[in-house]
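Q: My labmate handed me this sequence with no annotations at all. I'd like to see what the chain might look like in three dimensions before we decide whether it's worth expressing. Could you predict it?
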Amino acid sequence: MIRKLAKSIRQYKKETILAPIFMAIEVTTEVLIPYFTAELIDLGINAGNMNFIVKRGIFLILFALLPLLSGSLSGWFAAHAAAGFSANLRKDLFAGVQRFSFSNIDKFSTASLVTRMTTDVMNVQMAFQAIIRQAVRAIIMIGMALAMVMHINASISIIFFVAVPLLGAGLTFIILNVHPLFLRAFKIYDKLNSLVQENLHGIRVVKSFVREKTETRKFEDISHELFINFSKASKRVAFNMPLLQICIYACMILVSWIGAKLVVQDVMTTGELMSLFTYTMQILMSLNLMSMVFVMIIISRASAARIVEVLDEEPTLKQPETPVHDVPDGSITFENVDFSYVDDPEKCCLRGIDIHIKSGETIGILGGTGSSKTSLIQLIPRLYDATVGVVKVGGHDVREYDIRALRNEVAVVLQKNTLFSGTIKENLHWGNPSADDAELKRVCALAQADDFIEAFPNGYDTYIEQGGSNVSGGQKQRLCIARALLKKPKILILDDSTSAVDTKTDAMIRKAFREEIPNTTKLIIAQRIASIQEADRILILDGGGIAALGTHDELMAASEIYRETYTTQMQGGGDFDE
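A: Here is what I predict for the chain of 578 residues:
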């Protein structure tokens, strides 16, 4: 885990090394100051040597500036290294998520990924900074102060050689008991973030159904669960302070008692006893600092495990060793395809799909809810891989293509349309960043979006709020269709993408498709037969398999389901399910 996280240090290795080096210089000078002070007392003050007092005093003043300078440099390098490390870690996490296939993303909730990139990274950043600065300070201070205590009087050093291991064992016991609680608490954080995200996203629905109190109660329940877990963890972590206090006071009493006897016996000087008290406080304060670092490590350990879980996740879709970069045409072939979201042949949502679609052909797709219409079309741009069988585009298995090259030739307007915060023009440029204004207007005219865009005061510079909340459902669908058309794809897939527009607009969009992009293969999922009646062929899915395939006239003659659905809709009935 540590090796995995350390890869994100990268260009901040120099700062990561310099921070503890300057800290070591600071600690060394701090440890030597009491030793020189003891000499000042014994050889200067007690001996009445004013010349020695002046020289040693000036030396100590100048010597004290060294830890001030080195400590400041250590703090600067540590802060820079920690901030850079966390920035790289967030970048690595985000880049990893961008490489994920849909199968990978399905394993992590959106809220969980947000928590890992924010709260978890911040916890690891704080622990990293504490390790390269405070932990280094504490360890070096304890080691050097113990060495100076042994130099002054070896018998007194035994006190610390007993106290330090006892404190270390106590802190280790606390860490082992608290870690599972923090791990559980961060999972509750994910639930809390998910609830907040869901509530804010659907705030209009919440208010329209007057469910504010219910949502508040759900939030309070999860928040209380989080409170209970953190309370348990905090109570156990709190034991480190009483344990530390016991060690501090026990050591101070023993050093005072034994040291006073040695001074009376002329075994030790007054200056040495004074320096012993200073070294005792340095050791005990370092133990206190180490306990604080341990608490940070306890918290960050759970966060680090969650971060590494994402970094270790391997994309299920792999690039071929020698990929095909050119898609010859828009032909599509399904050869005995089965598909399962859990990669289990026994749990397939699509079975025995065998169909060949010619380049430039228009295929309508009908099916009831849960008939796997969306699952079928997601195999074409390789958002998922078929569990059994082969999906071909342009005569090649989709797994042979460079994924980027394949998806650049397949434009998909999914069932859930997404617009990003920014202007209409910026959203359209997702389809083609280099498209000029004339091209934008052309595709918007094809998608029947140009009229309502021009009606906005700022036209194509109109700002779209997050998720497209300031445009209607039909306007959002038409903007997404225009964005897809800008790609000039060989294959265009519309997944129920005109459900929010009226029948007249729907007909105009279909007419534009026939006239303007005749060579583009078009797959149109719809609930209204009128939307696909003029398609070259219509595919009916039922239970994950092909129930019927043919033209409108052929299906009217041969498919009872299609005929009944058509008759019902023409008489003012409902969609395919009804």
